[in-house]
Each structure stands twice: as structure tokens, then as C-alpha cells.
Amino acid sequence: MSPRQEQRSVDEPISVTLKVFGGLRQLRGSSAETHAVPAGSTIEGLWNKLALLEPEFVEKLRAGIAKGYLHVLLNGRNTVFLNGPQTRLNDGDTVAVLPPIGGG
């Protein structure tokens, strides 16, 4: 744990940046936004918070993830290789949701 994280009170929210690409970007109206979530939150917790504000967006997000149409990266690392939706968030993290890239 970094000194910055140790100084943060458990009740104090953390700031997380959400970046979306592809079709979800049009739904959101912007490609990046910052959200305050409770310390100790997970990616699933971020989705739950967003579902209160934008249920249609989160429904499409979850469906895309479940079907493999969307990937979730935490600070550039695919969360499939971390702890999936239970991956813990830290202050200053960036969560990116993007479609798989293909080419030939």
C-alpha cells in the first residue's frame, strides 16, 4: 500500500476515471469521466453505482462484458487476469471499457 493510500481515511471516497470507447462512448456523451466511490470499492461496485444513475448504460455494459464484446482494463491491464469484477480500485485508477481490437 502506498503512503498516499495509507493516509486516506476508510470513509473518504476515492477518485476513479472511467474511459469508454466504441458504441458505449456515444451512449455516455464523452470518452472519460471521473467518479467518486467508497474506499475499498471494486469494479463491480463502480458498475453498481453507475446503475443507479444510468441503468441502460450499465445493462449494455454488463451484457457486452458477459458476451465477450467488451474488455475491462484497470490501468492498462485486462481485469480477466486480475480478479475480474471483484478487482479492487485505488485512488487515481483508470478503468477503461473497450471493444476487442481485430485486424488482419
Task: For this entry, give a set of tags.
single chain, 104 residues, alpha+beta, Ubiquitin-like (UB roll), five-stranded mixed sheet, globular
What would you say this structure looks like, in words?
Helix content is 33%, strand content 23%. It is of the alpha+beta class and 104 residues long. The protein has a single domain (10-98), classed as Beta-grasp domain (Ubiquitin-like (UB roll)). Strand 3 (71-74) and strand 4 (77-78) form a beta hairpin. Helix 3 (43-53) runs antiparallel to helix 4. It is globular and about 35 Å long. 12% of the residues are buried. The model has no long low-confidence stretch (mean pLDDT 84).
Quick structural overview:
This protein has four helices and five strands; from the N terminus they run αβαβααβββ. With 104 residues, the chain is an alpha+beta fold.
What is the topology?
Blueprint: H1 3-7, E1 14-20, H2 23-28, E2 32-37, H3 43-53, H4 55-66, E3 71-74, E4 77-78, E5 94-98
Helix pairs in contact: 3-4
Q: Roughly what fraction of the amino acids lie in strands?
A: 15-25%
Intertermini distance: 42 Å
Count, helices = 4
Mean pLDDT across residues: 84
CATH superfamily: Beta-grasp domain
CATH domain class name = Alpha Beta
Please identify, by name, the CATH architecture. Roll
Extract low-pLDDT stretches.
Answer: none
Number of domains: 1
